[in-house]
Design goal:
single chain, 279 residues, alpha+beta, Diaminopimelate Epimerase, Chain A, domain 1, 2 domains, 4 helices, 16% helix, cytoplasm, Diaminopimelate epimerase, DAP_epimerase_DapF
């Protein structure tokens, strides 16, 4: 079976054209192929499928085999893939995801998709809807103690659960220690993506991300959106923020008229390959 490896500022996935092929046991396949020593190496796999309510559907499986609801970097790559491969020749297209239908705006020049702007929808702060089990209706700059250390967290859903912690220097964070403890904290019944954010000025912030099911990744689109929104609600930045991630930059705007979050960034092909699924 053919696959295409793509990346959005370092967040890499293996893409399968399920308009033409059928994947059995995608969870097991993702575990096998995502291994960076014995597999291809990726943050997971994404199946591009037909949809009866959008131009196409994307189905995401993390590196540990768990199913993801949404991926901001992954959906930009889907937009580039379907346009440049001739599956859907639209510069405005709709993609069905487990967190709803998302609209993509493709910046195309000479047949090449240079960047993709995604309507990521409205942020959700209500604790029960994220979900986060907390005694308050919302979790904004609230304390939580982990291993005897108090952290202040802000929780938001961008179609998947995020927990944001602000830090003076994200490079000094022991993310491999704190990340999994936060991800699996009992207050998150579905686990959570954990973002560590360092505010640089009113329009810029730096972040690292511990992704639910994948560990630290170079980028997370929904995480960048959740982090930018958290910066704004905590009065640390304005509503337009350039987020600097390990793999590159994303431009995030939280529209004050519609409450919608828009994310813009690149998407790139890495290489093509084939895999024998019988082995």
């Amino acid at each position: 079976m053919k696959f295409t490896k793509m990346q959005g500022i370092g967040n890499d996935y293996l893409y399968f054209n399920c308009f033409e092929e059928k994947i059995e046991n995608p969870s097991e396949l993702s575990i096998k192929l995502s291994d960076r020593h014995f597999g291809v190496g990726s943050d997971g796999i994404i199946l591009i499928e037909p949809s009866d309510r959008a131009d196409c559907r994307m189905d995401i499986y993390n590196a540990d085999g768990s199913r993801a609801m949404m991926c901001g970097n992954g959906i930009r790559c889907v937009g580039k893939y379907v346009y440049e491969r001739g599956l859907i020749k639209k510069d405005v297209l709709k993609v069905d995801t487990m967190s709803g239908v998302k609209t993509l705006y493709l910046d195309v020049k000479n047949g090449i998709v240079r960047s993709v702007k995604v309507d990521m929808g409205k942020p959700v702060f209500r604790s029960a809807a994220i979900p986060v089990q907390f005694p308050k209706e919302t979790v904004i700059d609230e304390p939580i103690t982990v291993d005897g250390v108090e952290y202040r967290i802000t929780c938001v859903s961008m179609g998947n659960p995020h927990c944001i912690l602000f830090a003076d220097d994200v490079e000094r964070i022991a993310i491999e220690k704190i990340g999994p403890k936060m991800e699996h904290n009992p207050i998150f019944p579905d686990r959570a993506n954990i973002e560590f954010v360092q505010v640089l000025n009113s329009g810029e912030a730096k972040m690292r991300v511990w992704e639910r099911g994948s560990g630290e990744t170079w980028a997370c689109g929904t995480g960048a959106c959740a982090s930018a929104v958290s910066c704004a609600v905590n009065h640390k930045t304005g509503r337009k923020v350039k987020m600097h991630l390990k793999g590159g930059d994303l431009s995030i705007e939280w529209d004050d008229q519609t409450d919608t979050v828009f994310m813009q960034g690149p998407a790139e092909f890495v290489f093509e390959g084939t895999v024998n699924l019988s082995k």
